[in-house]
Amino acid sequence: MNKTIIEVTNRIIERSKSTRPNYLESMNLQFNQELKRQNLHCGNLAHAFAGCSSNDKAALAENSLPNIAIVTAYNDMLSAHKVYENYPPMLREFANKHNAVAQVAGGVPAMCDGVTQGQIGMELSLFSRDVIALSSAISLSHNMFDGVLNLGICDKIVPGLLIGSLKFGFLPTVFVPGGPMPTGISNEEKARIRQDYAEGKIDRAALLKGESDSYHSPGTCTFYGTANSNQMLMEFMGLQLPGSSFVNPDTQLRTLLNEEAVKTVLQLSKRKDFNATIAGIVDEKVIVNAIIGLLATGGSTNHTIHLIAIARAAGIIINWEDFSDLSSIIPLLARVYPNGAADVNHFHAAGGIGFVMHSLLENDLLHEDVNTILGKGMLNFIREPKIQDNEIVWDECAANSLNDSIVRPVTLPFSNEGGIKIVKGNIGRAVVKVSAVPEDQRIVEAPAIVFNEQEDFISAFKKGDLDRDFVAIIPFQGPKFNGMPELHQLTPTLTILQKRGFKVALVTDGRMSGASGKVLSAIHVVPEAKDGGPISKIQTGDWVRVDGENGILECLKVDLNARLPQTKISNAEIGLGRELFTNMRQMVSSSEEGASFLM
Fold this sequence. Notes:
By secondary structure, the chain is an alpha/beta fold. The chain has two domains: about 5-35 and about 65-180 and about 215-320, Rossmann fold (3-Layer(aba) Sandwich); about 420-595, Glucose Oxidase, domain 1. The protein contains 23 helices and 16 strands. It has helices at about 5-15, 20-35, 40-50, 55-60, 80, 85-95, 115, 125-140, 155-165, 185-200, 205-215, 225-235, 250-270, 280, 285-295, 305-315, 320-325, 345-350, 350-360, 455-460, 480, 490-500, 580-585; strands at about 65-70, 100-105, 145-150, 175, 370, 375, 385-390, 390-395, 420-425, 430-435, 445-450, 470-475, 505-510, 520-525, 545, 550-555. The strands form four sheets. It has an eight-stranded mixed sheet with strand order 9-10-14-13-12-11-15-16, with helices on one face. Strands 2-1-3-4 form a four-stranded parallel sheet, with helices on both faces. Strands 5-6 form a two-stranded antiparallel ribbon. Strand 3, helix 9 and strand 4 (about 175) form a beta-alpha-beta unit. Helix 6 (about 85-95) packs across helix 13 and helix 9 (about 155-165) packs parallel to helix 16 (about 305-315). The longest helix has 20 residues, at about 250-270.
């Protein structure tokens, strides 16, 4: 095993000594007490199975068959989650076929960042993760279940489901994906259409047509943003069937994989083994594997927040230094849009997650000796599902890339370092995603221009005021101020300026999309402006250096400590339900602590 991976893993174990044992003690206690339906009173049981078929009622009354909880994030506004509409009856049928019962334990909210980008509803997006965790806990609180199937895909939804599930860590848990929509127009064409609209070359109707041609059917969006990074993580953490993430909806293989997920959670429930529970699977090594998967594939920067919160739910303490140190030795093995031209369908066809895992394991860059839903060892996960005689058979995954412009082995990477780094200096600490940034754009030193909102940036661009080298500073976008919305509207405009030959960068305490693009962006800055962080003291005209190569985030020739922080009246008090989240904004932790109000 690589020396740095061992060192990072060991320091996480050491850092978690006061929290991890408490978590495991609690989960073991609940596991051994068998907090399940046999302890319910008759009235409790009668309410719980009143809506079931007569056969299922008898099985639950006699406690003769396992009962599987389905926690679903279905709605038919999200293309990715529309596919879950018919999953509950399908999964119930599979459960009955394999001598078990399945019930929808509850639903969790699922908002779409693609709909709320640039809208005030985006200020609820990050908080929705913790609401999902709470909703998941309520779903499972009925104490009726022997295992869990989680139906969720997109940005905050999988992290929220995982956090909630870890609080019911004494149960076996399997994640069930829905798969990406088929490929639409090319990613280059989509980017060109967006940039043409930003420059006023096409009208709104042409833009809407281009977007509709890209996002065109049920299924996950095909770029490698947070949603598809979630799917990769569930495989790297051993919580989702191997090779299942990027199988398209409404295919025979997708249906067979759904049945396989039911069979898997039933097998786990029958083992009566703590190592078969989600608490027995998600340990320090599994969290490190998740970070490695994120780095090797150039995944979403949102997971520098989500993984911290997920780990804390299991009593494991990680921080950005762990990401940065692992990034120094984990090579970038994938080029998937926005880090390349291919989408996740192309990535999957070229070898996908299984090939990346295989190459990492072959080069001692992944913990193999971990528990998974398929038993001990990540070797169980370098397999892919195929159909033979209308049944799934498991074959070895591709040992060689089938398209080295999309995915490569450790011995021939796109970059010797992973795609995420930490920058720090007198402005604070921040995350940069350099996997998509051209090498000649990874260091920017230029005058600052401070903007109150991303709309002010767009307005200045349209007036022609930004045709120059500059670093855009957008403070007061952190979790404590307005819920840390993604500033996705900036990406096309910054890219245009970069293509015009200007050196541009972004510094903000907010987030960019999980599909942040080719512009150097120091995001998630801590301390945030709401806390009086140095980002709130930068003035237009100050010189700022953002150095993604050497990890520097500095306001030059200025003593920021001598300045008073700027203040700003929050605009996140009322409208679209934001008033309901006032207490959460006051309670939320910093970005580097997972931006959570739960822990």
